[in-house]
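Let us work through a complete example step by step.
Step 1: write down the sequence.
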Amino acid sequence: MIRLILLLAAPCVMANGCPPIVSRAQWGAKSPKCTKRLPTPVPNVVIHHTAGAFCNSRSKCNTQVRNIQNFHMNSRGWCDIGYNFLIGEDGAVYEGRGWKTHGSHALTYNPISIGISFIGSFDGRAPNTAALNAAKRLIACGVSKNFIRKAYTLKGHRNVMKTGCPGNRLYKIIQGWPRFKA
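Step 2: predict the structure and record it as tokens.
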């Protein structure tokens, strides 16, 4: 009985080996001003960091994701949050544009990639294990659901644009992940 109550109270669900994904409605997203379909499966995954404050609880991460969406829409003039997904140090994945919508995260790679951004700055420190594992599970989920090609290439943002993103410590970590190619 207790297990049933916990399952009913859960705000996000793990299905088919996929990590819990906090929906746009759950984090309080604004409606996008435009959407463009992303042809899937994509051949690339691009890893970013938001270069701002980190978060390690659902309420703090919800606030951070809303702040990022506001910055992207109000300051950058984009029609929505730029990333397809964001990863908090609470171990949750936050839906940005999702699997099927063209992102705005890496110019020429936008139409051929899923953009995953870790919430925080990762030059001087690495994301925690919960966040790193959530990202790995998200990528595996995308492959299993045919949103990401089985033979995908993993890149850091700095591999596709002139930037320091995703931060030196995070970049060093993803270089050891399967399918990484500079």
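Step 3: interpret the result. The first strand starts at residue 21 and ends at 22.
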